[in-house]
Amino acid sequence: MINWLLIAIFAYFLLAVVSLVDKFLLGGSLSNPKIYAFYVGLLGSLAFLLIPFGFLIVPESAFVLIAALMSGSCQILGICFYFDSLKKFETSRVIPAIGGLQPLFAFALTWFFTGGKEALNSWQIAAFSLIVAGSVAIVYEPKALNLKSLKAVALPAFLFALAVVLAKFVYVALPFVSGFLLISVGSVSTALLFFVSKEVRTQAFKVHSMAKKNTTALFFANQAGGAAAFLLQSYAVSLAPFAFVAVVNALAGFQYMFLFFFSTLFSVYFPNVIKEKISRKIVFQKIFSIILIALGLVIFAVK
Hints:
single chain, 303 residues, mainly alpha, 13 helices, 76% helix, 0% strand, globular
């Protein structure tokens, strides 16, 4: 269990860094979420370089093939809606809100698809609850909770959860690399569908406008980090038992921990880039939340 836990935690460390850069880019030249999702999906085609080496195995089961394509498609659609909400709301509000809902959706979807056969024991449910509670508490702010913001994050959270659960079915049936390649086919195909939009067609390849603002290198470097994080997260999903798929999602609490540290650091030294509210009350709230997440991890490690 320790292996996939550590892999997932490192993936969320990378995602915390990526999310901060995403917020910066979405406020600049890459302000259209559809175009951003298009580029992210298109970069997934790099995985196809592995096909000539015999890594692609087409499954005999139609369900596995459909699950792989749907998983990739849900991932890109989730990214599109995620970027849209990230553009409208604060980074430290959107990401934890999605992370709080996503493991709950994954838990429910796992139970639904397996008929309740894959389930956590009482200790594991307690640990799962602590991590989810800590993930929500780390940014809890009553004034920030409203129907509009909840609607904005509910859809990407559900799509991300569905993508992960479907991916687990694929990894159970196929070797990891083959399953990842098939899921990438779904991602790239969905990204290309954005070309139906005239807006995307006219803006997608205006890379020169990005260059003028010195964001081209930053964008591609950030997406490389995001791709590495997604690969590690996918590998953690493939290693974890089916019942623990929701736990991999819940470990996103570590992403919010890292996000809090980075946001605080930037607020102090680079307030013009990212500005977060810092007070004694907020610091105590973060510490309490981190303790909850840590307790949940300890229970998973020893039980």
